[in-house]
Amino acid sequence: MKERKVIIETGLNLENSYASLPKTFFTRQSPSHVPSPKLATLNYPLITSLGLNAKALQSNDGVDILAGNKIPKGAMPLAQAYAGHQFEHFTMLGDGRALLIGEHITPLGERFDIQLKGSGKTPYSRGGDGKAALGPMLREYIISEAMNALGIATTRSLAVVTTGESIIRETELPGAILTRIAASHIRVGTFQYVSRWGTVEELRALADYTLQRHFQEGDDKENRYLFLLQEVIKNQAKLIAKWQLVGFVHGVMNTDNMAISGETIDYGPCAFMDAYDPATVFSSIDTYGRYAYGNQPNIAAWNLARFAETLLPLLHINQNEAIKIAQNAVSDFTKLYKHNWLSGMRGKLGIFNEELEDEYLIESLLSTMQKYGADYTNTFRALTFDEIEDTVLFGKIEFDKWYELWQKRLTRQEKSKVSSKQLMKSSNPAVIPRNHRVEEALEAAVKQGDYSVMERLLDALSRPYDHSREQDHYSTLPEPSTCPYRTYCGT
Ligand code: AMP
Ligand code: MG
């Protein structure tokens, strides 16, 4: 491994605090060598915000680092161990195709995990090859960047490189590696792993590490493990509300895919909903709709209950007391979520103050949208710009009644009509990564090596609240022939 170490001025400033945790939490592992790495896409704004050097990353050595062929100074690549409930079934998992290269400390002193996804087998690969295909890695790049621009906490994508090798799925596909940036990769599943197979002292080490890394105010709390639980619940209540507000369907909310940091993580079969329908499911493997759009808040609460269970030995010396504390904290999720969702929905409708009947107003719009198959994003956009005649709701009795109620509601606040419209513009995105637009970008990139379609899409997605006419191309709906859209885990 030594001769592969490289010193170039990438700006990477790496530490390895995770490696100081008990040895059972990870396995040190070098990335596999790949034959002919080439840069597919590089995230320049992210490079700048992390204090990295674009020129160095574009150089041959830089691309070798992004492909795992060379190890940057200060790196200590490792695969993290974790478990998880996958569709309710508990199992041992771990980084089977990803490696934590190190934690980059930015010039502002923030700490981010740098992870290579698709970098070869690890001890946790089980039957898998540890590799990733170009299409799914570009897809993660596009959607995670879109989420970030929408103001939703997420892991980000620094780069995708092609490896020059073919990987075998149903057909042969070009191999690729994504560089993922995350506040951390600690998952609910990481706690489940230590809780199931570790000692209480190891569990405490993980909880203390997590507090130190994400929730430093915990030091002053009487029960810092309860604080940890409450903060994780609070962050998830924020996150899931934001998903619902833009129509994001994660698709595989297994406990291993829920990050303790509160970032959206693991972009597999995720997609954005077109027509409003709580039963929306895209994932080909989600036969029973466990992870349907409308079920995401319930699943988050279920996952958080699993997280709370792992903390029981730390919450109170008496198990019954610990259970009470945990149940109490988890039951707050629904209230917190509802509060965040309602306030986000009020924003989407230009409402500043709170009235008890707002929930009824919101629900009755949503049920009318569902009844007529109205597009979620474009309906709110049309309300924002008084362009409702362009939607399927135009002329429908339920909608006309609702519209009257809404107009009256808007008069019962002090803020002007202009501020109300402003609020709507900043709450209702003009563009989301529409499935057919994402597909056409991926097709051009993967099949023709033409990245221009993806670049234009990324550009539009980077300013979702601009509402410029150039964005119209990205708000058109798919042809009915391309529905229903199906996604695959992309492994
Ligand atoms: P995911 O569905 O991507 O959240 O992955 C679930 C588990 O499968 C994780 O432990 C992954 O590391 C592992 N995994 C996914 N794809 C592969 C692969 N190609 N090779 C080895 N392990 C994989
Ligand atoms: Mg995962």
Summary?
The chain is of the alpha+beta class and 491 residues long.
Mind explaining what this structure looks like?
Mg(2+) binds at residues 257, 266. It comes from Clostridium simiarum. Its EC number is 2.7.7.-, 2.7.7.108. It is an enzyme of class 2 (transferase). By secondary structure, this protein is α+β, with helices and mostly antiparallel strands. The protein folds into three domains: 2-185, no CATH class; 188-430 and 475-491, no CATH class; 435-474, no CATH class. 42% of the residues lie in helices and 14% in strands. It has helices at residues 44-50, 54-58, 60-67, 134-149, 188-197, 200-214, 224-246, 296-315, 319-348, 358-372, 376-384, 397-411, 417-427, 435-448, 452-461, and strands spanning 5-6, 14-15, 26-28, 38-42, 71-72, 78-80, 83-86, 89-92, 98-105, 111-117, 132-133, 156-168, 172-182, 248-249, 271-272. The radius of gyration is 23 Å and the shape is globular. The structure holds adenosine monophosphate and magnesium ion. Adenosine monophosphate binds next to loops. The site of adenosine monophosphate has 18 residues, from loops.
List the helices and strands and how they pair.
Elements: E1 5-6, E2 14-15, E3 26-28, E4 38-42, H1 44-50, H2 54-58, H3 60-67, E5 71-72, E6 78-80, E7 83-86, E8 89-92, E9 98-105, E10 111-117, E11 132-133, H4 134-149, E12 156-168, E13 172-182, H5 188-197, H6 200-214, H7 224-246, E14 248-249, E15 271-272, H8 296-315, H9 319-348, H10 358-372, H11 376-384, H12 397-411, H13 417-427, H14 435-448, H15 452-461
Parallel strand pairs: 1-5
Antiparallel strand pairs: 2-9, 3-6, 4-12, 7-8, 9-10, 10-13, 11-13, 12-13, 14-15
The structure holds adenosine monophosphate and magnesium ion.
Protein name: Protein nucleotidyltransferase YdiU
Active site: 256 (proton acceptor)
Enzyme class: transferase
